[in-house]
Amino acid sequence: MTAELNGNKMDARPNFDKEFSFAKRTTCLRINLDTILSNIGILKAQCSNHTDVIAVIKANAYGHGSVEVARYLSRHGIHHFAVAAPSEGKVLRQAGVTDFIQVFGNANEVEIPDLLENKLVPTVATIEFLQLWAEKLRLNKENNGLISNDGSNVHTHVGSVVIKVDSGMSRNGCQPEDLVSLIKFCLGNGVHVHSIMTHFSQAWDDPDFTKIQLETFLKAASPYRKHGIKLHTANSAGIIQGFGVDLDFIRPGIAIYGQPLDNMPSTIAQYEELGLRPAMAWLARPTLIKTVGPGQVVGYDQTYKCKEEEIVATFPVGYADGYNRLLSGKGLITTIYGTPCPVIGRVSMDAITVKLHKDTACQDYYILQDDFTSANSTTQMANELKTITYEVCTSLSQRLPRLYIGDGKLYTERTNSL
């Protein structure tokens, strides 16, 4: 019998002992960077030939590990990234990532020191921020503290900004009519505008509203292309649905990790038709397996009582790792061959308890999260939790070890190769 994990065929009796010894814990996330690159290629193929990619790696690359994702993608020709906070950009700089890094949101005065120190590109919506930014740039240039000549890519965009236009979502960005004054200020005060952007709020399932957003944005922003200012609008949903895919950049996020935009079977079918695949699996091995007699309770609060003699396994993951407490008595993990095993009792901070089948109790490794449609998929978890795959993935804790597959190697964040 064979199985598949992260898009890779496995032998009938796979041996993850070496991997877990490097993870130094009896649970880990197994992340296929080659799959991420393949997903980006699939998304890029939906666009014009001249369209480049800004890979969105905020929230620790949606739980996948921003440092290793950025390093790998940079080696493979992706040189634009986006995060949600200056602190996320700082982590990448400290890890040696020298590419363009945009910080989403409405840039704020308190962020300026970190933005400049780490050579990050803010997303701007107000003239007040631009005035402060221009003054800081002037002072830094006078003190020779801004420009460096170490040859890295980062210095190409030092001091640049991205201006965001609110095209109808009413969250971030300037009003379309205010774009004129923001661009005029930048052109007159030596602030380089890397690009102008907007964000679609419902590109996946409301094409009419998305068309209005796109038209609103293009009417406001298109005149500035003659100044060399680039435009971008398309998030994952926009790319797949064909909105804004002929502009200068796309900004794929959740789709590059192969996670569905919603939990509908039709969405999963569309992903599979395109060839998009999940890049991450969550594995664990039990730290204890015991036989529990009828009438005995399992876990906190006596929420589960054995009706018969049962085999109960304890796994070293809990809600502090991102395995949601609401999955208490509802979650499922599977053997590596897909046999479901129910989570029983409360999910605690650092452990879950699982009822094993007698014919699978001898297996060493189990899957807590994988694939599109299996019992333990992020989609099924999201359905159970009444949320979306975004939240399931971004809830995965930093303390979970991450193992990476890329360029024919398997490695951790601490090593180049296993």
Automatic annotation (TrEMBL):
The modification N6-(pyridoxal phosphate)lysine is found at K58. GO terms for molecular function: alanine racemase activity; pyridoxal phosphate binding. Its cofactor is pyridoxal 5'-phosphate. SMART domains: Ala_racemase_C. One of its GO terms (cellular component) is cytosol. InterPro entries: Ala_racemase, Ala_racemase/Decarboxylase_C, Ala_racemase_C, Ala_racemase_N, Ala_racemase_pyridoxalP-BS, PLP-binding_barrel. Residues 279-405 form the Alanine racemase C-terminal domain. Substrate binds at R171, M349. Keywords: Isomerase, Pyridoxal phosphate. One of its GO terms (biological process) is D-alanine biosynthetic process. It comes from Potamilus streckersoni. Signal peptide: none annotated. This is Alanine racemase C-terminal domain-containing protein. The keyword Isomerase applies.
